Amino acid sequence: MAEKYNNETGSISYRLKEPNSKSLSRIMGRYAFKEFQIDYATGLKISPDQWNITNKTVSSGEHKKDINQKLSKFKTAIIDAHKKFNEQYNRTPTKEELRIIVNNAKEGKELKVVQKDKKSFDQIFQEFTELIALKNKRAIASGQKPLHRSYTSSFNVMYDDLKEFASHKKIFLDIDKFDEVLCIEFQTWLIDEKEKELSTIKTRIKRLSQILRKSFEKGYTNNRSYMLEEFSVKVPPSFHVVLTEPEIQMLYEYDFSTSKKLEKVRDLFVLACHTSLRFGDITRIESTHINTVENTVNILLDKVSSAEKYKSVTFPFFGYTKSILEKYNNNMKDISISNQNTNENLKEVLKAIPYFSEKILTREKPTNKGVIFEEITFADKIAFHDSRRSFCTNRYIEGWDLLEIWQYTGHTNETSFKTYFRPTLEHERIRKENIKLRSEKLQKVDLQSKQIEDLQDQIKKMKDFYEKEGLNKSDRLFDIGKSAS
After folding, report:
1. pLDDT in tens, 270-302
2. Whole-number Å distance between alpha carbons of 302 and 25
3. Collapsed DSSP state (helix, strand, coil) of residue 98
4. Residues 6+ apart with CB under 8 A from 401
5. Which of 306, 131, 92 shows the shortest CA–CA distance to 217?
6. Domain extents for the chain?
7. Distances from the Cα of 390 to the Cαs of 160, 319, 382, 451, in angstroms?
């Protein structure tokens, strides 16, 4: 038989907030239930000399009866609200739910009727995260790539925000009641109170929808609000910066000898611009990843799709790769720092170079007042991952075949791969010109190879001819000598 909690409630006590005050003191309430203690303000004040410390009531004064009645009413309302919760949910409330019970009872709000014996939002969330942990264990045991820690942590971040929102709004997180209205209110709260970007809010709602969908699939609820368009956050096109090859050259040739920290960050970034490796991979490079005979890099990627096994990439040195690796003895592992610090230091690197510190980008941005132009400082916008976008964009413009670029990036699907370069009409024009130049260069190389082959063939024929003619001449000389004798 399932355990029942209908008769389990807590106790209420009162105290003075300022017991030594010479004027008035606020009366505070505390609802104690098991290991939880919920403090709340009654909104009532009295003189400390009118308070009975033993009985925790007002002992004298003009408003003695009125205040004691209000304190008793608070007590009754909170106990009744807790009993109603037990009757409807048939389980122990969480601390957050208990706080809402107390606050709603104090303010005279009714508890909505819900399905009995249902799982709490917290129980469903814990079940979901435990399932993710089990999937990761299975993936590791079968030699596959587990879900990335940033993916799993995004659920915890979402749930922390969701609980804070519920506390702010003084509501229960009810799996049946979370509809499109609450979803929009949650999004608005994230914008107004947490000052989150739309891209971040989109991830929050995406993770919430995954919880709601899983709850429906497992029969915990009939709520399918997650399918409504209000759960789909519209985000303006993302805006990323890309360094051209002349800019990368300018960055690499700048003298940072007075700051070894900035020099190392610059070298890491430029190396990433010419290898396309992510920060987590570029900072793992050591000598065993490098083939100095063939001038190639071979490395097992740290982050790939969860549906794929671990993946290695092998590619030849390009650009400044060889000089940077030799500078650090093929060991970038010893100079690595945290990604967050690197991004901040990278901004400092670019701001130290006049060209980048003065460079301003302009983009159109949709707002509630229409589309406006926004100016962005290039150095403030830069992030380490822009090195990967720079590699893909520059190689695309140079006319590389997509499979050539893919050899470096190691993407597991074409959709993700193509997000790293968004060519403009000008990019496409330059790419066509470069493809033509590459084609002409290859044709020229092929022609030169053919000419060399023809020349070598002619030399061989001449050599064979002269060797044969020389042999014939010696035979004739031998015959003439024999006849003379």
Report:
1. 999 999 999 989 999 999 999 999 999 999 887
2. 60
3. helix
4. none
5. 131
6. 11-106, 121-231, 245-423, 439-485
7. 35, 13, 11, 39
Averaged over 148-156, what is the pLDDT? Answer: 88
* Strand ranges in 391-452 using DSSP code E only, listed in sequence order: none
Q: Which residues contact 26 (CB under 8 A, 6 or more apart)?
A: 16, 17, 18, 41, 42, 44, 45
Evaluate whether the domain defined by 245-423 bears CATH number 1.10.443.10.
yes
- Please report which confidence band the pLDDT of residue 305 belongs to, taking 50, 70 and 90 as the band edges: very low
145 — pLDDT class (breaks 50, 70, 90) = confident
Distance (Å, whole) CA 21 – CA 15: 13
In the chain, what is the greatest distance between 2 CA atoms, to the nearest angstrom? 162
Within its chain, how far is the Cα of 136 from the centroid? 18
d(CA 356, CA 389): 18
Query: Is 414 exposed, middle or buried, given 0-12, 13-18 or 19+ CB atoms closer than 10 A?
Result: exposed
CATH 1.25.40 for domain 121-231, yes or no, is no
Cβ atoms within 10 A of the Cβ of 275, count?
27
Rounded distance between C-alpha atoms, residue 20 and residue 51, angstroms: 11
pLDDT, tens digit, for every residue of 117-126? 568 888 899 9
